[in-house]
Amino acid sequence: MRRTLTIILGFIACGSSLLGGLKLSDYELWQRYNGQPINVIEFPGIASFRRATLLARMATDKPPWIRRYSPIGHRPLFLADDFAADIIRLERFYARQGFLDATIEGEVVHQRNGLKLKVHITEGEPLLLRHYTLHLGTNAPIGTDSAKLAPFLSLQIGHRLSEEVIEASRDTILYVLQKIGHAKACVDIETVIDSVARRGDVHLTMYPGPYCFFGPTEVVGLRRVSREVVRREFQYEEGDGFNPEKLVETRRRIYRLELFSTTMIEADTSVPGVILPVRIQLQEGRRYRLRTGIGYNSEERARGQIEWTDRNFIGRGRRLQARGKISAILRKAEMRLFWPHFPYNPTDIVIGPKWQLEIEKGYSLETIGFTNMMSAEPLRRVTLRFLHDLGYVRRYGTQDTVEAPPSEYPRSVETVRLFWDTRDSPLLPTKGHLVGIELSEQGLFWKTEFRWMRGILSGRFAHPIARWTVFAGKVETGMMIPVHGEKETPIEDRFYLGGAASVRGWPRRMLSPRSSMDSGTPIGGEATFEAAVELRRDVWGPLGIACFCDAGYIWKEPSEIRPGDLLPSAGLGIRILTPVGPLRVDFAWQLRDNPYDDTTWNWHFSIGEAF
Fold this sequence. Notes:
Elements: H1 2-10, E1 18-19, E2 22-23, H2 24-30, E3 38-42, H3 51-55, H4 80-96, E4 103-111, E5 114-122, E6 128-136, H5 146-149, H6 163-179, E7 186-194, E8 199-207, E9 213-220, H7 227-231, H8 244-255, E10 260-267, E11 275-284, E12 288-297, E13 301-310, E14 319-327, E15 330-339, E16 347-360, E17 363-379, E18 382-397, E19 408-421, E20 432-442, E21 452-466, E22 469-482, E23 527-540, E24 543-555, E25 567-578, E26 581-590, E27 601-607
């Protein structure tokens, strides 16, 4: 690239000659700075795009983001040829994005210990969409029309017209045609630009082609894993009508086995005829995995964890895990066996023994037992689970009850969960929702000394309201009652609020009825309501901020529920994006008088979004 650029520049007249926004005199001046370290790259005039978007299109090595604010971090070396090519590349990027008059000019500022690069941007007036047309190029019936497709297209009259928007609309049309079986569909695009009025017209012509079917499937890359393990995850049969969603779902189900490091699946549309062979390219990962880690958050404080996994235990995709964890509030050791397609093909099970010690204010709870779970996906994005928690409990400490319970007793909790999840990411959701219902009962299968029933209804959503802003919310309500003549529910099974993932103006579990013997000891309640809204904004690179408002309350009994009891809090948060989720620091203040004379503000440090 550097040699080619030099040859191109050689054909430019000297002095004030231009190649876009690049001056030959500037390029010659930059040569003297070759090899010097870069401190920071700035973009004066940037308005329509993120700084990270432009940096990603530059050949010049980027300094770490922290160098913008401190002298910490590696400094790459400056190369004039790369920087000159970047100026041309960015100008062409702006042209493709609809800014036909945009100019990009580079500046190198020599500092005492390095260089500051400035990319001056004048965006100008963008190209706007005047109108578009969408019609069939043949008379073949395809089961859809332009009126149905229009709401899903990225093209919007009066909005900026760019290559990205046009291609996205084309891809949307192709995907809709492919979903109804037209795997060989194509779309022709004609764009008419009025450069004087800064308006554009787009004409889209659809050619659906023949209706296609899935053909034979070839699986490549298997060594230790049998083909039958992969075959069970297929969401289509040979002879079924073509649908790309079935290929996507097949890839997801293969990937969940954790047996493969890469999974590629595609139908060959280049073959003649309507029967499309499918090729699945796999690369097996390591069978055994050992993970260790240490960390800290404001609730568990210092913590450590170790996990060993056999990803193909006794074959057939079974996965065996052994875990251990220790923190200030939890000691835990467990084994889990994931057994796909057992006892029936549509279901998976997870079984395993565990030992757990929870250390809470007012009591400690030691549990020895088994956790069993059966799950199925009856519909796309809908999951149904049945859990059975069976064991023996030993409780240390007392609770504020009418009759003191025994310190040792058996435990058997049966739970049914149903949830619908359309979020784009469980770690960092930017759109979609999660709606769930949970029903539990203790002592349904195995008789225990405590009998209770509990129901929880919850909903979460995330919705982008601007280019870098997401509005998110959460609502959850629950109720439990003692049954079969019982008067009290166990303190460990009651509802609690407060903490990093709950009403953040309160410490963990402290938004709760308190013990009559100690106002600093929460004892939980049998009814709860919680709601929260949050505005998340990306600021720069991995850094983001959030403002939020939470509200909730715990009632000791369902008969005491009053909406006016809700205790709200509000606050601000800082987010730093990491590979395992956002690193989160939240500061929150209570908005009503604290009935327990506790501290009226709290801070929380953890990983992952609150909801």
